[in-house]
Amino acid sequence: MENELTKLISRFMALTDEESKAFVECIPIRNFTKGTILLSQGQVSRSSYFIIEGCVRKYYIINGEEKTTNFYVEDEAVSSLQSYMQKTPASHYFECVEDCRLAVLSYDKEQELFKRVPRYENLCRNSVENDFGMQQEALANYMTSTPEDRYKNLLDNRLDLINRIPQYVLASYLGVKPESLSRIRKRIASK
Questions:
Q1: Which residue in 92, 96, 98, 182 has its CB near the most CB atoms, within 10 A?
Q2: Distance (Å, rounded) from C-alpha 148 to C-alpha 163?
Q3: How far apart are CA 187 and CA 191, in angstroms?
């Protein structure tokens, strides 16, 4: 038994037929339309997601203004770990920026998978450690760079986002207003 997710997992660890069956049974793949809110501030996260197709953004609302802090794209996990693991209300939102095809894993099914496929827990731990390191690096880069440097970094490292994400959302991610992003883009284009 195989699906898009098991094919991906097979890149990291060989799966037996029984393990593939466990993943297919425990992690359904669902389609979500652009604009779908997967998690709202104040809601306890009951699921983690893995992006097969599409883009999800994480954002906060501060003083009535959206502040985007991350984008997740194909082959990336989307999870509000503290809310999901500790059963506490989330302080942020997850929104589908595009139509998305996501593998959806509930907490209970995750625990079942850990029992049925013990090696999966190690894969998850490695993934969380990797994500944590990347988040630390992203935060350090954000704190020590100018908005123009952040935009150049996007151009160098995440060019795919430039055409996928609405400009006002990119501006929020860079920590500027949309009109400031327009000026940054013009300055860079004229160089």
A1: 96
A2: 18
A3: 7
115: tokens are 């029992």
Quick: pLDDT tens for 62-112: 999 999 999 999 999 999 988 888 999 999 999 999 999 999 999 999 999
DSSP three-state, residue 52: strand
Q: Across the chain, what does the average pLDDT equal? A: 90
Residue 84: phi and psi, rounded to 5, are: -65, -45
Beta bridge partners of 104: 49
Predicted pLDDT at 126: 79
4-118 domain in CATH 3.30.70.260? no
Domain ranges of the chain: 4-118
Please state whether the predicted TM-score (pTM) of the whole model is above 0.85: yes
